[in-house]
UniProtKB/TrEMBL annotation:
Protein name: SDR family oxidoreductase
UniProt keyword terms in alphabetical order: Oxidoreductase
Recorded superkingdom: Bacteria
PANTHER family, sorted: DIHYDROANTICAPSIN 7-DEHYDROGENASE (PTHR43477:SF1)
SMART domains associated with the record: PKS_KR
Annotated Ketoreductase domain residues: 7-174
Record family assignment: Belongs to the short-chain dehydrogenases/reductases (SDR) family.
InterPro entries: KR_dom, NAD(P)-bd_dom_sf, SDR_DHRS6-like, SDR_fam
Gene3D superfamilies in alphabetical order: NAD(P)-binding Rossmann-like Domain (3.40.50.720)
Length: 234
C-alpha cells in the first residue's frame, strides 16, 4: 500500500469528530491536510494544515475553493446536514440542504476538483448504516446515504483511474449526538451498543482507520466499505 506522505488531503465537512480523527491520522502519515466547511474560522486543523470555506449548497463557494486550493490528491466528503422526522413533517428547504450535503455537493466537488486530480487520486464519500437499515424519521438521511453509495460507484467508472469509494459507518460517538443532551445521548448510545454484534458503538478512530485504508489501497474502487460493528446485518 502507498503512504500519504506529501499527499494533499482535502476533508470537506472535516471539522466533525470523525473528520478531526481522519485529519490527525493523515497528518501523522505525512499528508498536508486542508479542512473545508461552512465555518473555517472555528476549525482546528492538524499542524501544517489549513482551513477554507466551502458550503456544499453553494456551487460558487466550491468553484472558489478549487481555484484557491489547486490540485489535491485525496478528497474526503464527510458533510451531513440533518432533516429528520416523520415524512409528513418535513420542510422542503431542509430536505434540499440535507441532499446538498450528501449528494449534490459531492457531485459539484467532483466537477470542480476532479479535473486537477492526479491519476492516482482518490475520492471518499460518506454513507451510513441507515442506508441499508432504514429506521423511522430518517427517510432523508437514508436516501442521501444510499445516493452517496451510488454516486461513488458511478464516479469510480467515469473518473477512472481516479479511485472512488464510499465508507458507511454505523453509530459513532463523534459529537454528532451531543445536542441530544448528556442523558438522552447516553441512553441512545447504550441501546445502540447492546444491539450491535460487537457490543459497543464506534469511535471516530474506527472510521478513520478505514478511510486511511481507502486512501492508500490502490486496488480499491467502486465499492462501499461498511464499518458498523455488524449493525447492518444484526
Ligand atoms: N456519527 C454517526 O453515528 C454516523 C453514522 C452514520 C454515518 N455517519 C456519517 O459520517 C459522516 C461524519 O459524521 P460525523 O458524525 O462526524 O458528522 P457531523 O457531526 O454530523 O458533522 C458533519 C459536518 O458536516 C458539515 N456540513 C454540514 N452541512 C454542510 C454544508 N452544506 N457544506 C459543508 N459542510 C457541511 C458540518 O460542518 P459545518 O457546520 O461547520 O459546516 C459538520 O462538521 C457524515 O457524513 C455522517 O452522515 C455518521
Amino acid at each position: 500500500m502507498s503512504s500519504l506522505d506529501t499527499r494533499r488531503v482535502l476533508l470537506v465537512g472535516g471539522a466533525s469528530g470523525i473528520g478531526r480523527e481522519i485529519g490527525k491520522a493523515a497528518a501523522a502519515q505525512g499528508a498536508e491536510v486542508i479542512v473545508a466547511g461552512r465555518h473555517p474560522e472555528v476549525v482546528t486543523v492538524p499542524e501544517g494544515g489549513t482551513a477554507i470555506a466551502i458550503d456544499l449548497g453553494d456551487e460558487e463557494s466550491i468553484r472558489r475553493a478549487a481555484a484557491q486550493v489547486g490540485a489535491v490528491d485525496c478528497l474526503v466528503v464527510l458533510a451531513a446536514d440533518h432533516a429528520n422526522g416523520p415524512v409528513e413533517s418535513l420542510d422542503a428547504d431542509r430536505v434540499r440542504r440535507a441532499l446538498d450535503a450528501k449528494v449534490i455537493g459531492p457531485i459539484l466537488l467532483a466537477k470542480h476538483f476532479a479535473p486537477a486530480m492526479p491519476k492516482n487520486g482518490v475520492i471518499v464519500l460518506f454513507s451510513g448504516v441507515v442506508s441499508s437499515r432504514p429506521s423511522a424519521d430518517l427517510v432523508v438521511m437514508a436516501t442521501g446515504n444510499r445516493a452517496a453509495e451510488g454516486l461513488a460507484d458511478a464516479l469510480a467508472v467515469e473518473l477512472a483511474p481516479i479511485r472512488v469509494v464510499s465508507v458507511s459507518p454505523g453509530i459513532v460517538d463523534s459529537g454528532a449526538y451531543d445536542s441530544m443532551g448528556e442523558n438522552a445521548k447516553r441512553r441512545y448510545l447504550d441501546a445502540a451498543a447492546s444491539s450491535n454484534p460487537v457490543g459497543r458503538v464506534g469511535s471516530p478512530g474506527d472510521i478513520a482507520q478505514v478511510v486511511l485504508l481507502a486512501l492508500t489501497n490502490p486496488f480499491l474502487t467502486g465499492t462501499t466499505l461498511h464499518v458498523d460493528g455488524g449493525r447492518r446485518v444484526a
